[in-house]
Amino acid sequence: MAVRNEISIPVFDGVDYSNWKIRILKFLQYRGCLEVVKREKCKSDDSSSDEKDVQATNYIYIYIYIYIYIYIYSAISNKQLEYISELDTAYDIIKKFDEMYMKKSTALQIVYRHKLENVKLNYLELTLFFDDFEKAINELKQAGATIQEQEKSKLYVKSTTRK
Question: Which regions span the lipid bilayer (predicted)?
């Protein structure tokens, strides 16, 4: 019996867009199709010196375009499909999601960063402090922020010092 080694992306339902986007972009990079969502189709995609080359290029582009388009459709919930059903390209879908969810993520980053900065070592149990601190870090990351280890260490030291 052959083992099926297929990669699947979790269905995006409007939560954790930044993580879903990372997964979908890495998958497309793995498949060699990342360019389809990184830029719009331009006229140079259709032009070539030889007519057969043009037809072959168009066929390959159309195949890749349809594959990516269908894959993105299969990796989103019905609610998200309502938002992007009128869009024609994978590039436009990702662009629309960026407009919808990256702004929200920026606002959430501000809220979660403030929450993280307010975590203080006021607990009788040290494990409760670590749990709250890690939870605040994870919430900030889920909102799309990147936190380097050095910054995490500074926040940790700041939260353990008393004023």
Answer: 59-76
Q: How many domains does the chain have?
A: 1
Residues contacting residue 80 through CB under 8 Å, at least 6 positions apart: 12, 13, 14, 97
For 125, the domain range is 17-160
In a domain, 65, yes or no: yes
Q: Residues 23-37: what's their mean pLDDT? A: 87
Domain-located, residue 8? no
Q: Taking 70 as the threshold, does the pLDDT of residue 47 lie above it?
A: no
Average per-residue pLDDT in the chain? 80
pTM tops 0.90: no
* Residue reference for tokens 């990372």: 22
The two tokens of residue 15 are: 């939560």
